[in-house]
Amino acid sequence: MPKINFISDSNIIIHNASFDVGFINSELRKCEKVELNEKCIIDTLALAKKQFIGQSVSLDALCKKFNLDISHREIHGAIKDAQLLAQVYLELIGGKQTTLEFNSTKIFSDYGPELTHINVEGLYKNNEKRAKKNTFLNVLDNELHETNIKQIPNSIWSKLKC
User: Fold this and answer.
1) Whole-prediction pTM
2) How far apart are alpha carbons 17 and 22 in whole angstroms?
């Protein structure tokens, strides 16, 4: 039986996986595809139950716990829920990285004197840019990707100049 190419062996993040996986695997069997490997499934419901013992861990409840905006979510929808679940998952595994500090020399001082005197700018200043590989890109997917990146609050991507 062939695998689903776009999933391959990637991890799949699902809220309440025990409910959804049965339906998904049933449909995969009908299409003569390999069922989802349970080792590749991350169940955010199970993660949340361990972290918030005895509390409500529905997707809505977790969004409220993590102060995620659900005002635009009037009904359950696959895309909206997937976007919210991605944010919830990041919070469940330790939270989003909102700032990065590269100016602190304290970071390097623990590694010994050889790292405290590195001129980081000099390391990259004279390096030539690598040649771009031939990549086939779906223009609509790329536009959707760029639109989604612009919607990320405090995104590091908006600070980069390419």
Assistant:
1) 0.56
2) 8
